[in-house]
Amino acid sequence: MKLRKVTAASAAVLALALAATACGGDSDDDAGSGSTGGTGGGGKIKVGIKYDQPGLGLKKPDGSFAGFDVDVATYVAKQLGYEPDQIEFVETKSADRENALARGDVKFIAATYSINDERKQKVDFAGPYLLAHQDLLVKSDSDISKGTDLNGEKLCSVTGSTSAQNVQKSIAPKANLKEYSSYSECIAALQNGTVAAVTTDDSILAGFAAQDQYKGKFKLAGLKLSNENYGIGVKKGDATTVDKINKALEQMVSDGSWDKAVAANFGPANYKNEQAPKIGVIVK
Amino acid sequence: MFDFLEGYDVLGAFWMTVKLTALSAVGSLIWGTLLAAMRVSPVPLMRGFGTAYVNIVRNIPLTVIILFCSLGLADVFGVTMGSEDFKIQGFRLAVLGLVAYTAAFVCEALRSGMNTVPLGQAEAARAIGLSFTQTLWLVVLPQAFRSVIGPLANVLIALTKNTTVAAAIGVAEAAYLMKTMIENEAQTLLIGAVFAFGFVVLTLPTGLILGWLSKRLAVKR
Q1: Contact B193 A24 (CB under 8 A)
Q2: A162 to B76: CB separation less than 8 angstroms, yes or no
């Protein structure tokens, strides 16, 4: 008897949980298609970035923010009518980006957000504002020069990341892949020689290599293993904001601020950046 | 509604979770029993070691222990656990970390079980000439185990869920696949629900079966 009661109760709880998640998904879609989404209110704008990626989006110990994504976000916000002191940066981790936009927690997200078809069903993208490629970070005296060199080599990437999946599927299925939950751990493994290379987007790698403690120790292999079109994520259906951001990005490129931001953030790592991408052009 | 599951080996990932759980459970039961024996042993050095081990290890977050196994033991000190392949190495290191951590809790559960055995039994055992090991093995532990099946079930359920921490060092279990799927599919809530359900399927029967066993086997006093 008791056993049956317990199973019945737990089945009920499960059914409730599933129903709740299903409803959540539906109502997100409904809200997304019509309204233009609320801003933070009180003259502030909330912008999603990453806190843990040097060169792109990094929260520094003193509480300030630095990186290319931050520079782009600041420029775009200015064009939308917000001064830098009116911007509130919010951390949006990879898994949470779609929900943060759907809920209206942030107005837009500039956080190494690659445009792809699955994500386009959930959010709208402005941009792209940067074309990055999957690449390898190796020690400065390494002789790895092409993707297939990785077969049999020891390699590090982040658990579940697109880069890790690419390596296993297409680039070098025989590579010995170590996975950690963040790139800092991979960089540590590279420094003490446990792995021969770290792989992810070249922009992220350049950001790590440009940090003071690693200057001159690492270099980018310069392989273009994939195309990652970084876009700015906006709530689904918010076409006016997408237009405004696209205009802001065009202006950022034409007045030279874009080049300045690239040079300032990725400088010391032998990073050869692509030309600023044309708005709406996705390089496959 | 569940078409996003296609192309992913969800069952395989949960099988990895089961393997991690089973191996770590056996390992921590053995190591935990040894620790409990040390904590009640007449040798002060062993008692000290047991106490120190339990108090240190159970107060360190599991994430730190598992990361230390990989970043510290493997990367810095070169402990390869008998394999150069990072997949196998990660699995073995994760089992090592889980055993080290869970054994502390097994030890404490078992020690509380020993306290349910009346002192007179140990004294009687000694009076008929049994050694410490014999007293423990033949008289105290059999009764202690039967009274702590319930608490051990809790430890086992916690262990099942704790295996998700192994994703931090790249062991391809359930939480690892969940990360991958969320990265690719942008379906956080549904994917989360599927994996939560999977863990309920794993842990609920464990609790029910062991709960029933603990009632049947408990020593009636």
Answers
A1: no
A2: no
